Amino acid sequence: MNFTSIRVITGDVARMVGFYERATGVRASWSTDDFAELRTASATLAVAGVRTVPLFAPGAARPAENHSVIIEFMVDDVDRVHRDLAEVVPDFVQQPTTMPWGNRSLLLRDPDGNLVNFFTPVTPAAIARFAR
């Protein structure tokens, strides 16, 4: 089995996709006005509008109500990401900080309030965990 994607349901697909394109530098691939994907080498972030929810199960997902999931991106330089996003992120949840497990981490909220973590492995053990 391979984990392939996570899908975020939003009331404003264009705004959310624009944010993630800016934050990641990855261009989205649009299937419809209600569905786009940002594909990376290891996984895909899908962004879908509320009109897609009834295709699965009416009422099963609601935008801007996540309080338990953190979307994470490994980046080459988390401090550069912080500088690049300073003008578009009004309030960072956590400034770049080296965590006890060896990642330098930046925590923020996307336009719907979902937590997003950009991180760079910085200790030898953390770097080894992500070596491919």
Strand content: 25-35%
Low-confidence stretches: none
What's the alpha carbon Rg, rounded to whole Å?
Answer: 15 Å
* Major pleated sheet: 4 strands, mixed
Q: Strand order within the widest sheet?
A: 1-4-3-2
H and E string: EHEEEHEHEEEH
Find the count of extended strands (DSSP E, 2+ residues). Answer: 8
Describe it for me?
Helices cover 23% and strands 34% of the residues. By secondary structure, the protein is α/β, with parallel strands linked by helices. The protein folds into two domains: 1-60, 2-Layer Sandwich (Signal recognition particle alu RNA binding heterodimer, srp9/1); 68-132, 2,3-Dihydroxybiphenyl 1,2-Dioxygenase, domain 1 (Roll). A hairpin with a 4-residue loop joins strand 3 (35-39) and strand 4. The radius of gyration is 15 Å and the shape is globular.
